[in-house]
Write a sequence for this structure.
């Protein structure tokens, strides 16, 4: 997929656990064909996560899916991700925040023209970066996300007015729909 080398908007798209950078490329193709984006020069960046799982599947940080499923039954949907932030979370988020900031500077794009988009684990990453950057991003797009960090509620207050577009399937087995509802209320 070709994106504009001299963009007006910079969009980062982060894949989910067990996927890869190409997994969400179709989302970019659809956006580039739709409405206003035909006249707007957009550069999209699809990055692979740092932790390789099997073959061409990657993770932004390790997840113990079996432990999460167990926790779903013991702690319920509201407590699913409580106290589950892995040690790799902060370093991965910091690296991605640096990537986003450096690429925006390199392309001379104001941070208000940066869109952070992610699916599932990638949405947690995008949310963390959006809430912790010094400047307000242009938008945050969350596909199948949930409230992953307790401090997000406070950080969301600091970023009041940020444009957020959130989608969540009702049959999601890993991040239940109710988790998406919790984060939608931030």
């Amino acid at each position: 997929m070709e994106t504009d080398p001299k963009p007006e908007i910079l969009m980062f798209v982060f894949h989910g656990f067990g996927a890869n950078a190409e997994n969400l490329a179709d989302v970019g193709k659809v956006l580039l064909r739709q409405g206003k984006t035909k006249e707007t020069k957009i550069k999209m960046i699809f990055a692979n996560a740092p932790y390789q799982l099997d073959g061409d599947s990657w993770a932004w940080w390790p997840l113990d899916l079996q432990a999460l499923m167990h926790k779903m039954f013991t702690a319920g949907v509201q407590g699913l991700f409580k106290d589950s932030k892995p040690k790799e979370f902060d370093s991965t988020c910091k690296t991605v925040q640096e990537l986003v900031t450096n690429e925006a500077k390199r392309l001379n794009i104001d941070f208000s023209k940066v869109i952070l988009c992610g699916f599932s684990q990638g949405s947690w990453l995008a949310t963390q970066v959006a809430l912790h950057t010094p400047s307000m991003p242009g938008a945050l797009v969350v596909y199948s996300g949930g409230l992953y960090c307790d401090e997000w509620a406070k950080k969301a207050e600091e970023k009041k007015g940020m444009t957020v577009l959130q989608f969540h399937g009702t049959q999601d087995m890993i991040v239940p729909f109710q988790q998406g509802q919790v984060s939608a209320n931030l």
In short: DSSP finds six helices and seven strands in the chain. The domain at 9-184 is CATH 3.40.50.1820 (Rossmann fold). The CA atoms of residues 5 and 42 lie 8 Å apart.
